[in-house]
Amino acid sequence: WRVEQNEIRWNHGLGVRLGSHSRLLNNDIHHNGNSGAEVGIHSLVEGNTFAAHNYADYDKSWSAGAFKIVGTKYTLIRGNYAHDNDGHGMWTDIDNRHVVYEDNISLRNNGDGYKHEISFDCVMRNNRSFDNYNREGNSWLWGAGILIQNSEGCDVYNNHVEVGAQGNGITIVDQNRSFKFSNGVTTVFHGVGNTIHRNKVVYSAGGRSGYHNADNIFDYNIYVAANPFANHFGIPFHR
User: Fold this and answer.
1) Residue 238 has pLDDT above 70, yes or no
2) DSSP secondary structure string, 27-85?
3) CA–CA gap between residue 231 and residue 141 (Å, rounded)
4) Pairing between strand 186-189 and 177-180?
């Protein structure tokens, strides 16, 4: 399927769902009750706007926001604009592999700006994140401009993240997470083997960058802080 130059709005749940080898191009996808889109393997998501989703108040920890893509491989997410969603911005969750995020903008979403969760092998490059997780009560390493959550083998570089009053910068979380697939196989996911390099993180107030264990690399990043005495870095430890 090729879905191009449409306005997709006011669905109670999802805006558009496409299968494998699809193209979602230059659409204005907004005000859907849950989130904007899902696509299958070998798909291209390019040039779309995702705005003001989750008017039906779905559980943001389950599925809500700009989009949540599950189980894809070799998917390219490029040049999209996600803003003012009540939930996460751009989100790949559950066994996604070889996903590329590039040249996207994520702004004022009420969750993480970009999230790669219980998955493998992503590239996030040349993306911009501004003032995501704009609500009270953030804790630990959640609500990040970029979050690698229980995923491994990700290369995150040349991104620009500006942290608002409640959010965090670029973080890696490693919890005790497993998932049982329909074939009966259970996979355990860890936030290890990721490289975060040559990014710029700007803190307007508080917020942190860092990782939950020491099996990751942060290198050659630039940090700009209005308050250099605040705790802007998580302390790693081994499992």
Assistant:
1) no
2) -EEE--SSEEEE--TT-EEES-EEES--TT---TTTS-EEEEEES-BS-EEES-EEES-
3) 12
4) antiparallel
Residue with the two structure tokens 């599950």: 70
* Spatial CA neighbour of 213 closest among 181, 234, 239: 239
| Rounded Cα distance, 34 and 56, in Å | 6
Q: Is the pTM of this model over 0.90?
A: yes
Q: What angle do CA 187, 144, 230 make, to 5 degrees?
A: 125
- Beta strand residue intervals within 94-199, DSSP E: 99-102, 105-107, 114-117, 122-125, 128-130, 144-149, 155-157, 160-163, 168-173, 177-180, 186-189, 195-197
pLDDT for 164: 80
